[in-house]
């Protein structure tokens, strides 16, 4: 029985196209070039944060985030960044009596922006607020405290095999991969073959139907 569903953010609920484009503009490289390097690192199973190092060795991501905010071009999360199935799916889960949470590797500022969207969910948290990030097991300990029910009654949904599925499963939770964003598409077949997810879905609407 699933009592709670907790969602990752980037490329699960949010289309990251605008944010990646904003980073490309900030560091002064063409958007398609930034995306190509990000894709190559993804295919190699490496951390996407390394993308910046190829363009600016020694890149300090936290510092550059602060500079972007100070320049008036910091993080922006609006309705247009949500995938179209987000509001209907989260609402459908709540109507079925399932607790809905959002918890991902984002800044504290992103948490504020997500709350301002007034999504149909019960709680929102980010790694920036918790002080621990995926795939650290402590992140999933926080998820277990955050959501109601026993760990085996909590479903974590994300697009990233190594950051979302594997650590959630090791933490004793159920897990689902959404085939969305570069990681979701790249790893879906491997996840299915290895049996690393309880569900692999193409949309959040499909997820609601699957767990119902």
Automatic annotation (TrEMBL):
EC numbers on record: 3.1.3.-
- Stored Pfam families: Hydrolase (PF00702)
Keywords for the protein's UniProt record, in alphabetical order: Hydrolase
Question: Which GO molecular-function terms appear in the entry?
Answer: hydrolase activity
Q: What is this protein called?
A: HAD family hydrolase
Q: Which organism is it from?
A: Nocardia aobensis
């Amino acid at each position: 029985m699933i009592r709670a569903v907790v969602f990752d953010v980037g490329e699960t609920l949010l289309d990251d196209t605008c944010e990646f484009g904003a980073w490309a503009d900030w560091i002064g490289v063409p958007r398609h070039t930034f995306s190509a390097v990000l894709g190559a690192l993804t295919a190699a199973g490496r951390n996407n944060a390394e993308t910046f190092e190829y363009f600016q060795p020694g890149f300090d991501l936290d510092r550059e985030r602060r500079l972007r905010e100070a320049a008036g071009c910091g993080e922006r999360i609006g309705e247009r960044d949500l995938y179209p199935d987000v509001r209907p799916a989260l609402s459908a889960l709540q109507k079925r009596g399932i607790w809905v949470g959002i918890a991902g590797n984002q800044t504290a500022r992103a948490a504020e922006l997500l709350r301002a969207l007034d999504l149909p969910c019960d709680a929102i948290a980010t790694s920036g607020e918790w002080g621990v990030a995926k795939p650290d097991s402590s992140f999933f300990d926080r998820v277990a405290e955050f959501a109601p029910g026993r760990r085996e009654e909590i479903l974590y949904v994300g697009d990233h095999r190594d950051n979302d599925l594997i650590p959630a499963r090791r933490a004793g939770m159920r897990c689902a991969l959404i085939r969305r964003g570069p990681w979701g598409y790249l790893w879906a077949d491997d996840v299915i073959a290895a049996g690393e997810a309880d569900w692999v879905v193409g949309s959040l609407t499909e997820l609601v139907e699957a767990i119902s």
